Amino acid sequence: ILTAAHCIYGNEEGQLFTTVVPQLEDTSQFPNGNIQKARVTEVYYRSDYSNALSDLLRNDVAVLKLESALNIDSVNDVVKRPSNDSYRSVANDFVAVGHGDTRSGFDATTILQRAPLNYVDNTTCASAFSDGSALTDNQICFRGDYSASSGLFGGTCQGDSGGPVYWLDGSDYRQVGITSFGPETCGGSSTVTSVFTEIYDYKDWIDSVVAGNETPKFVSTDAKRTAYVNAR
Prior knowledge:
By secondary structure, the protein is an alpha+beta fold. It is built from four helices and 13 strands. The two termini are 30 Å apart.
């Protein structure tokens, strides 16, 4: 499972009990609904990840290995990745999805939301943040369209972290990024509303994790979970 490193970094208790719920459309169905879910058994993130906001969450990418296989279509329900980064163009169509807040500090629905996005080049993106000089080419930025009804620009918000942004490549949606951060007020910037870790730049590391060539940063087991519960 691809996610953002900041979603799991430094939280051993959270890592012990992290559960993945694939294709969850309605959050009201978790945890008591009749839905598929699987616990995480191994956590991987890069040693050069920085959780400092001044570094703009540099190398904010993680991979989670599950303790059991998911019952999904192994062709149509898995991430399709781009073969190069030629998608970086304002002419292309992008969309982010997530269960995060619908505006800062408020969530109006339990249903999975989507936000069409427009590509923003990194120079323009950096100008939107006081510490924008820390932005790297391994991050990709977007801005959504303005909504007269909400008074906001479309984008991701708190609770969307770790989720995907897709590029519509013909008929295929290819994941190009992982939700990392955005302006202090969701949708409040006319320059950029969402910054993502660009997964194309981490393809070799991701492939190495999947191939079993990397050492996990954390391993969760039933014994560890039991010991944690008994110690409380």
